[in-house]
Amino acid sequence: MESRKLLKQGAEAKLYLHDFYGRPCIIKERFQKQYRHHTLDSMLTNQRIKSEVRANLRCRMAGILTPTIFMVNFQDNSIYMEEIQDPITAKQYITDMSAQGDSSSLLMLAEVIGQTLSKMHAGNIIHGDLTTSNMLLQGNPSNLRLFLIDFGLSSFEASAEDKGVDLYVLERAFLSSHPNSQELFNTILNSYQAATKNIKSCKEIIAKLEEVRMRGRKRTMIG
Amino acid sequence: MAAYQKVTHMLYPDTSVTLALFANVESCKNLRKCVMEGTVEAALLKTAMIVDSFQVLVAANKAIHLYHTKSMMTKNVHSEILYCLSPSKNISESFRSFGAADGETSVFVAIVNDAEDRTLKKVTNILGREPDSLDLTSTLSDKKLIAKTYRLTDDELSTFSLLDTLVSRVAAKEIITAGKGQS
Ligand SMILES: Nc1ncnc2c1ncn2[C@@H]1O[C@H](COP(=O)(O)OP(=O)(O)OP(=O)(O)O)[C@@H](O)[C@H]1O
Ligand SMILES: [Mg+2]
């Protein structure tokens, strides 16, 4: 297709801008890795695409914003989805607001992130790759619309362990993308806990998060 | 006949789909008979189940792709459009829920590769009516029945437009309904 415009070249996927019968569309095409075994690779790619689409839809059913899926092409391993208009990644937003010293906007974002992740985990959806780049924002600071994307590593698990690890993955990514932001991350956790109706399971999740943190620390002390 | 839409497939420039709405007809009986006999090749869709022509376009886009990649679940591209629209894995149930019935007084028609609009002209002759504006599609839809058939959640309905919800459901059908018993 000549009308494709390359938007991003990632480690595992290329993103193109396109038009889907009049609607702005993003094509996310996963490509083969040269060094991996061919059959194994196409099985993995196929799995990633299915995971991505399945979790995207499960999130929608739980009332979490995700891009509308237009088409799945298993021939060239691509997903055609709605292009979110004028998005800013949460990563960019945090960087910008920090630079401006706009702490009230940061707090409002942390609230929304905590609430969204609580809803996601209540639906037993594990994102698997939570980072501030995989959250797209629309709207103004007091009325942010948060879209979750990039579900290729997702799974469906009810266990506190998996949810705790999901939060730990975010914490690690968060602190490395945004130095000196432990306090902001704690606000996310507080909002996550406030929004989670099942108090017992929420406590277990946070306990698991703390457990995984400890393990992580030990590992860095030894290694 | 200015009301209908003819769209070229984004991946297969040689393949097109024609979408036409007949909002007020006496019955679908004769037209259905012609489709059964094979003298008219088209998908006849139940208007109650359609909120927008884009919903049908997404299903047709998928059906044509499955046709070209030899991965259809049904015997021809027109029945595949019906199957793609339906959330069910059961083919006859899909036809029952999404196909126009004899007694219905409106019908949404999708025709793949209608050279010189010949099939559309036949349909128009059989129904004795010209196609109506596709903008009327939403006025004929039964939103409650749609929500029930696709098992839409309240959270979903309050977060997204009905159309976008259905579009995602159609595009992801075989992925979200992989195993029997799990949904
Ligand atoms: N639907 C969309 N609408 C607008 N922008 C998008 C959309 N999907 C992706 N993007 C942009 O492209 C970037 C990369 O997308 P995504 O995270 O899905 O791929 P990736 O990170 O390369 O995937 P992987 O983690 O498998 O390597 C996003 O951070 C976002 O800026
Ligand atoms: Mg990403």
Automatic annotation (TrEMBL), chain A:
GO terms for cellular component: cytosol; EKC/KEOPS complex; nucleus. Its main location: nucleus. Residues 1-223 form the Protein kinase domain. Gene3D superfamilies: Phosphorylase Kinase, domain 1 (3.30.200.20), Transferase(Phosphotransferase) domain 1 (1.10.510.10). It is found in: Nucleus. It holds the Pfam family Kdo. GO terms for molecular function: ATP binding; hydrolase activity; protein serine/threonine kinase activity. The keyword Hydrolase applies. Its EC number is 2.7.11.1. GO terms for biological process: tRNA processing; tRNA threonylcarbamoyladenosine metabolic process. Keywords: ATP-binding, Hydrolase, Kinase, Nucleotide-binding, Nucleus, Phosphoprotein, Serine/threonine-protein kinase, Transferase, tRNA processing. It catalyses: L-seryl-[protein] + ATP = O-phospho-L-seryl-[protein] + ADP + H(+); L-threonyl-[protein] + ATP = O-phospho-L-threonyl-[protein] + ADP + H(+). The keyword Transferase applies. NCBIfam families: arch_bud32. Component of the EKC/KEOPS complex composed of at least GON7, TP53RK, TPRKB, OSGEP and LAGE3; the whole complex dimerizes. Belongs to the protein kinase superfamily. BUD32 family. Component of the EKC/KEOPS complex that is required for the formation of a threonylcarbamoyl group on adenosine at position 37 (t(6)A37) in tRNAs that read codons beginning with adenine. The complex is probably involved in the transfer of the threonylcarbamoyl moiety of threonylcarbamoyl-AMP (TC-AMP) to the N6 group of A37. TP53RK has ATPase activity in the context of the EKC/KEOPS complex and likely plays a supporting role to the catalytic subunit OSGEP. Atypical protein kinase that phosphorylates 'Ser-15' of p53/TP53 protein and may therefore participate in its activation. This is non-specific serine/threonine protein kinase. It comes from Biomphalaria glabrata. The lineage of its organism: Eukaryota, Metazoa, Spiralia, Lophotrochozoa, Mollusca. The gene is LOC106072730.
From TrEMBL, chain B:
One of its GO terms (cellular component) is EKC/KEOPS complex. InterPro entries: CGI121/TPRKB (IPR013926), CGI121/TPRKB_sf (IPR036504). Its main location: nucleus. Keywords: Nucleus, tRNA processing. It comes from the Eukaryota. It is found in: Nucleus. One of its GO terms (biological process) is tRNA threonylcarbamoyladenosine modification. Gene3D superfamilies: CGI121/TPRKB. Belongs to the CGI121/TPRKB family. This is EKC/KEOPS complex subunit TPRKB-like.
